Amino acid sequence: MAPTGVALRDVRRQLFDAAERVLLRSGPSALTSRAVTEEAGVAKGVLHRHFADFDAFLAELVLDRVARQEERGAALRAAAGTGTITRNLAAALTELFESVGVAVVALITSRDPLRARLRAAGRPGIPLLTEATAAIAAYLTAERTLGRLAPDTDVDTLAPTLTGAAHLLFAARENGAPGEGAVRKVVDAVVGGAVRG
User: Which of 99, 80, 69, 77 lies closest to 176, judged by CA?
Assistant: First the structure.
């Protein structure tokens, strides 16, 4: 526990990381301001000195994860034309969901005030999934332009299908994250028919 008066380095990051650990260990229902501050090893009032209330904290946590997803989306788009389409998509979906992605989505869907704050911040739908779907659509469009997907590939249908199928695959993990082969199998089932060559 940090004593009063001791400056904390990057307290926002410390609190976000603590929230992720609570989410991964115990799920959205266990995520409270007390659980976060205890996990972070800081005084109870620290969170409320940096955020208006707990839902403001959660909104900032989600927006931080959305920014990370947008960076990953840019990297996926840059991978167009390299490797295999199945491998690129499987890696991107695994990176999204294997850590805290599934738990963040559960958090968003379980808290109406949080969804309202995110909508007010210009993030409609289910943030994280929305950005992941847009990134996958951009990647598929690039691959179609490069001729590695059939010219009539329906990117606007395939992208949300991939995101939804992967989310369900990772959300159903009682015995740990699905293996690489399982993720590739889902990706291949969704896009394999459109891949050329």
Answer: 99
